[in-house]
Description:
This protein is α+β, with helices and mostly antiparallel strands. It contains seven helices and 18 strands. Strands 1, 2, 3, 4, 5, 6, 7, 8 and 9 form a nine-stranded mixed β-sheet that branches.
Amino acid sequence: xxxxxxxxxxxxxKNFCQSxxxxxxxxxxxxxxxxxxxxxxxxxxxxxxxxxxxxPQQATPVSGRLILLIKPGTKLEDVEVNEFHxxxxxxxxxxxxxxxxxxxxxxxxxxxxxxxxxxxLPQGNYVVQAVLDTANRFAYYGRIAGxxxxxxxxxxxxxxxxxxxxxxxxVKTIQPTTRDWLSPKLTTSEKQGAIDSTKLFDFPxxxxxxxxxxxxxxxxxxxxxxxxxxxxxxxxxxxxxxxGFGVTLxxxxxxxxxxxxxxxxxxxxxxxxxxxxxxxxxxxxxxxDSVNNGPWGEALTTEAIPALERQYRMDAKPSGxxxxxxxxxxxxTLWL
Length: 336
């Protein structure tokens, strides 16, 4: 019995030792991974969160891109992006959907951020502001009617990650504004002439609509020369004008009034002007056919221009189509 027991015991020990040797690398590997994870965790910076609450004035749920803007300083004013010094303001963002009044959203300011995460900002005085970009057009147009913003909030001697989480509340909905597009230098008759002669061209583009999968329009202001209605059989050469970066369709209307005044005073020949809108939520598209923005060049040359020449008395000849562009619009002119 001793021999039998000893034999069983020896085999058991042998199997145990063999199993231990097979299992030991896994244990050591797991321990190593645990130590590595702990080391990485201790070295990884903690993400910094800001909390934003939708104020009580909002009666219906809203969606859009929630944007946080922070800049050094103490002056309590709207925090604006400087196009010529984009890194002077730090920006973080988060998409929100169906956001209701009274609800709060925590924004990870190290996730989607430019030029870097807020946790990397040095200690100092800052001003921070939150904006809900309801139309996803902030990147080019900035704040527009319908966007909701907080008041600018000071962060005195602020150090990232120290103290309570900063909290802001969206309390103000931006209202539409009216801008007088007629220069005060225009006479009364010139003002009326500019009003009567400036027409909105809002063309639904099939090729752009197909590209985007939703209705897309190509827009412009069409300026008719003085005497256009008085000479119903006369045809006119046409100038296609493309604007620079930062300009919008509404601003182009002011340019149209200025050109009308010069034609009325005889300083420029009578021509039809088409002030094209090349702005988009991500910048100016320059009427270049693009995998990002779509076939804007095709839409203009094969759809919009033929439609314009059917609607207005343009001479509709290559020799009567002129291109004129300012700044970024110069790139569009070269492209076209």
